[in-house]
Structure formats: C-alpha cells, structure tokens
Amino acid sequence: MNILFIHPNFPGQFLYLAEYLAKNPENRVFFLSEENVSGAALRGVQLVLYKPAAQEAKDLAEKTGPCKTMMHSMLTGLQVVKALQQIEKQAHFIPDVIVGHTGWGSLLYVKDLYPNVPVLGYVEWFYRAIGGDSYYWPDEIPSLDAKVAIRTKDASHLLSLASIDAAYTPTHWQHSQFPAIYQPKIEVCHDGIHTEFCSPLPKRPGLVLEDAKIDLPEGSEILTYVSRGFEVFRGFPYFMDAVRLLLERRPQLHVIVVGTDRVCYGAQLKDTSYLKEERKKGIDETRVHFVGHRNRGDYQKILRASSCHVYLTRPFILSWSMLEAMSFGCPLVASKTPPCEEVVEDGVNGLLAEFRSPHHIARRIEEILDDRDLAARLGKAARETILERYELTRCLHRQEDMIYRLVK
Hints:
The chain is an alpha/beta fold. It has helices spanning 15-22, 55-62, 68-91, 110-113, 144-153, 155-163, 172-177, 236-249, 274-281, 296-304, 320-327, 338-341, 358-370, 372-389, 392-406, and strands at residues 2-6, 28-33, 45-49, 97-101, 119-122, 166-169, 186-188, 207-209, 214-216, 222-229, 254-260, 288-292, 308-311, 332-335, 351-353.
C-alpha cells in the first residue's frame, strides 16, 4: 500500500505512526512536509520537502485582517498539491491513502488532485469564541471583533472537514470542540505514549546535568515543569508565582524548568517575554534551573528524578508532556481545566489545582512533597492510567485500523 503523510512540520504527530507503518514490507511510505527543523529521520519513510509560498504572497496574506489564516492556508494547500504532482512525476508514487494534519491548510486541495484517494485527517483544534481556549472563564468577555476573527479562523478547518473521508483527534475534550454536525466523522484516538521509554526506575534517582551545572543527589526535593514555550496558555506566570511561594517555605527545593523562552500559543508580549518579566520580579536561579530544550535522554533523566511534576493549561490541546510525566510515574499537579480533567481524577492519579491561583497550585504541590506515601500512590495510579488508555502499540493499532477501513 502506498501511504502518504502530510504535515508542515516533520514529523509532527505522525512520529510513531509513520515509522510503524513503514516497518510493514507491504507498505511504501512517503512524508510530505515544509520543514524538518529537528533534522529527524524515520526508518523506511521517504521525506519530501515542498517549497513554502513566496514571501510576497505571505506578506499580502498578512494584510487581509480576519481572513489571514485562511489566506495562509490557501497558500500552503497550493504548495502541497504542486509538490504532490512532482512526487507523482519523479518518484512514480500515487498514494492509496493520505493521512494528514488539517491545520495550516495542508489538506485543503488534495481531494481536488486525487478525488478517489481516501483521506484520513488529524483534526487537532476547532476555535471557539466562548468555552474554548480564548474566552473560557466568565470574566473573559470577547468583543464582536474578536468573535468575528475567531469564527473566520475556522474557515480552513471546515473546508478540510467537508472534503476528507474520516478524521481523528487525540482527546474527547478536543472532539467536543468541533461542530456537532461533524463530530460523527471524527474518532477519538490518541497518538500514543511510549511507555517503555517513559517508565520509572525502581527508586527515584538524583539528577546530574553537567552542561546546566546541576548535581542533585538521590532524595533531593525536585519540582519539574515542561513546556515548549513559556506562556500564559501553559500557565507559566502562575507556576512561577507558585514557585516563589514554595522557595520561601522549602529551603531544600529545586525546580527544573524545561522549555524555551518563546510563545507557541497565544499572544506575544511586546518588546519582552514572559521569562524576562518573571526575572524582573526576582528568581533565585541557584534553585530554579532553566535548562532549555533538552534531548530525549535528558528529558527522561529529569522526569525520573521528579518529586512532583506540574502541568498547567488553559482549555486547549492536551500536551504529550503531561501524559508522559504520568507514564514516568510522576506525582502530578495539573490544572483544573477540561483537558486535564479528562485524564486526571483528583486524589486518585493526580491532584488538580485552580489554573489561575498560584496559592492553590503551591498548596497542592506541597501536599505531594509533604506526603511521600500519597506521592507514591498517585504516581503508581498515574502510570496505570497511561498503560490502560494511552499505551503506544494499542493506539498505533487503532490508527492502522482506521486507515484500512478507508482503503478498498
């Protein structure tokens, strides 16, 4: 079977699935992407990079107000089909099935090129003015302009949903955000968590990161936080305020913060960053260690050493990092928001805290740090949850079955 994956940022959510399908000698797997920033390579998967749209066209799209997301999506969709024509011509590859992310316009026009080729779409997020990521709490009131912009932002998602044959999304919360008329077309199936890699050791070790000058012995009190960027969407300012409270009360506590000083989701700050603003308030960086983006080996070391892990998010896409932390058996404090509440049962496999309350976040962290029996029980239950519901092989088998249901 000829399988084509499409995602502008290789390999995206198809990291495991593309390589898994390529192991099957019955399959020939191509992956079409705009960029491969990490320099990743997947065994058996042939990567083809398409050219981004011309800068002049991108600049013009930026000037179209609420329509700019749709304009950028159109540009991406056109570049994708041009690249597909080249793949067919040069590699003699015509897909039997296409699996792609519907964001960024990647799948907008594939059905116009290949009307008889089934397309399985990975649908990640549908924007809503109220009740979603933008204006969730009662005191957050969108203006009419904001509502118009958000509704218009969904145009490319709706066009893609209308054309593809089937779709899937990682969580029930994400599924619930899509219009009811499209929900029967969308299956809930997580990408899967690599529970063998994300596994705890029999005894929690210390932590040594030589390049970051961290050498914490076994038994150290280590609080961990992981996020691609430092931003409000993932609760970074609230976490840092909670950390300041904890540092005052717990002289032996060390905090490991993994991520980079950028905004991946939500509005950028003008002429500054969230980390710069936090440093203005004062941070004891002899005990709060900003270690940047880490390779998977360091990431494993950090979470295996964690006494307590914190994951905070607005009502948005649930990060792999929370589920991976649970798979590592980390005692978890998560925000009391729908993405986390789908997985975390308060007091059973983690503790829930008010997203916007640093005092409550700090108090829940201390419950774990002060009661190691509770910590052990929560960590054990957290890993069991991941093994039962998100184990990688099971998820891959379900995704493979979705593909075979589409192919005649």
